[in-house]
Every structure is written in structure tokens, then in C-alpha cells.
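Pipeline run #58 for the internal structure catalog. This entry was flagged by the ingest filter as a single-chain record with no existing model, so it goes straight to prediction. Upstream metadata was stripped on purpose; only the residue string is passed forward. Reviewer on rotation: M.T. Logging verbosity set to normal.
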Amino acid sequence: MSDSHKISFVSAVLMNINIIVGSGIYLSPPLMAQQAGGLSFLGWILAGLLLLPIVLTIANAARIFPGEGGFYNYCKAALGEDFGFIANWAYLLGYMGTVATITSGIRDLLINPLGFNFIKEYPIVFYVFFILIITLLNMISIRVIGKIQSMITLLKLIPLLVMLGVIYFFWNSSFDYQIDRISDLAGTIPLVLFSFLGFESCCNIGHHIRGGTAQVFKVILIAFSTSVLLYTVFHLGILQIMGSVALASQGVHAFPKFMGFSAVTSAIVSSFLLFDMMLSYMNTTYGAALNNITNINIFAKCGLLFRSKFLSKLNASGMPSNAAIVHGILIILLVTCVPSVTILVAITNLGVCIAFFLTILAVFVQSLRKKKYSSLFIASIGFISVGILIYLTWTTKLGDNNWTRLIHASPIMIGIPVGFCMYRYSKKIKNCSVNK
């Protein structure tokens, strides 16, 4: 691809910020406020620092292992095809948790504050209806959806930009930061990890940036740092306006009620914010589902899944409709069996952390071979960061004892070995067919 058809450095940074800053900006702050009160905004900074060596290592992976394929490509090149499959499969399972999490979050919005009690009493009806819509959207040409997504992206950024503009005027010098809850900050980090997911997708566009993969490192570092700052300021602004108790109990959508507007104006602004949140949630759900369905289709085209021929089939729009249907059924099962948003966040974190760990291992091994000591050092810190993320997710978000945690983590604990057995069996059948 010639440079004239590639995106500029600035455009790449802005694109990556758009990828990283998603529905987590609405979903995570109330959960973080429940965990750590007035100090909860610091969770973004702590998680950002903890994630930084992981971000830098994955950005380095895109440079060390050029080409498309993401985690599969990185791990296959340094560790072998089996590890490449495990990394991508774990990532797929984790991102199924993302779709389920946002689906559950949308249901919560419809129940409170909108008051759809029918959805509260019959959640399965909502799950089937909503996932059916997302599945049907993933059967439509991506060009059509792309135009709609561009408009939703602009709407998504409006509340963030407004908060950046008004935080000065609503600064509360007597705000209670609840310093005594500083030990609770660790529990906010797994929630923040969920909100930052997307940075890893930025590594896959290195070949579209002018200057190639050499620019990926800088682009991701700047985009990630800017996203950390935006999330932190937005969260701090909401705390200053409505306080930690109101944020924890009422959610982000309620902050216009605390800005001194008239009842009518407050209702209008709150309604717009709710509408904006719903669109952002749907946009995130669609994007995550598309990512999952694409991965399922790629596995199927390589003959690595059961019924690969069925799953690789495309419809008239060129979309993998059968893979979309299977994905939708799996999401309905997951969100029905695990209705807790916090546990679904934890499932997502476990899946992606396994992919992160194997990618860091791939970079470590390759750097050791090439005697790239700076990369070795960053990767070594990355191992520690992943370990801390898994530990915090396991101990603070999956239950009070290990037996409960094992049950809640079963989609990952069972899904990975089942997927690997399926992969090995399908690969064996494929090799036998070739030999014949």
C-alpha cells in the first residue's frame, strides 16, 4: 500500500483514542464509586500505570512480528501454532464476555431509570431480542453499518467534551475524597482494565500508518496516555458534580440533575445522555460481536473448529451469517447463566489477560533470541502487571472463596481446554484429509 493511501500519524492517534474510549466511560464509574468512593477516579491512573508495560510490549509485538493476525500471529511466530490458537481463542472467549457485559448493562439502564419492569422480570426475553438485533446487524454489509457508526462516534464524545469544558465551574473545594478508602482502590483496577480494552486492536493497523510498524509504538503510547487522562478527568468531574454516593447509586446518566438546571432542562439533558449511552452501548456491542464473529470465521476458514464448513459460509452481503448465529446463541447462554455485570467483566479480563500473557511471552522469547535487552526488560515488567491484573480480578470480582471463583470463571476455565481439544482434533482431521 502506497503512503498516499495510508493514514497520518495524527489521524492514527485520534482513531486509536476513539477505539479505546468506549462505553466503559459510562459503565465503570458507578461500579468504581461503589468500590472506592471519592478516590475512585484514581483507579484510571493506577490501572494505566499497571497496563503501560503490557501496552508497550504488545505495541512492540506489532513491530517484532509484522503482518496481520494479532495475537495469533505474534504467538505463532515465536511459540508455535498451538500457542497462537490458545492466545486468539482466549481472547475470543474474553471478548464474548464483553458482549455479554454490555448487554447486561443495557438491561440495567432499561430497568433503572427507565422503569421497564417486564425486562426485570423476564430477562431472557430481552437477551434474545437484543442479541437477535445485534446478530442481524452483523449480517448486513459492514459498509452500511460503518456510516451509522461514524455518527454514533461523534455522539459518544459529546458528554466527554462537555465535562472537560465545565469541570472548572463545578469544582467542589470541600469534596470528600474519603482517603480512608485508599485500600479499596485495588478493586477498581479490574473494572478499568475492561474499559481500556481496545488498545490491543490498535496494534493491528500498523500497516495502515505512514511510516509502518515503526510508528505503532508512538501512536499507541500517545493514544493510551491521552485516553487515561480523558477517563480520569471525566470521572473526577462527575464526582465533583454529584458526589460518590449519588454516582454509585444513580449512575453517570444522573449527573445533569446536579448541575443546577431547571427540572425541564435537567430532564431533557438527562434524556439525551441516556440516549447517547444506549447508542454507545449498542455500538460497543456491535463492534465486539463483529470482532468475535470475524475470529470465529477465520478459525473456521482454517478448518480449526467443529463444523468449519458451516461456520465459514458467507451470506449475500459477504458476512459470516452462520458464525453470527452461533455467536448469538453462545452470548445468550453466557449472559443468562452469568447475569452479574461485575462477574462478566471478570470473565472478560481473564480471557484477554491470557492472550496478553502469551503475547508478552512471545516478545520475551524473541527478544532473548535477538538479544534485545530493552524489550526483555519491558516484557519482564509486563509479566508482573498481568499477574497483578489476574490476581485482582480473581480475588475482588469473582467471589469470596476459591470454589465460588472457580464456578464463576468456568466459561474461561472450561472454554480454553475444550477449544484446544477441538482445535487439535480438527487439525488432525484436516491433516489426514491432506495426506489422502
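catalog note: The mean pLDDT is 86.
catalog note: The radius of gyration is 22 Å.
status: ready for reviewer M.T.
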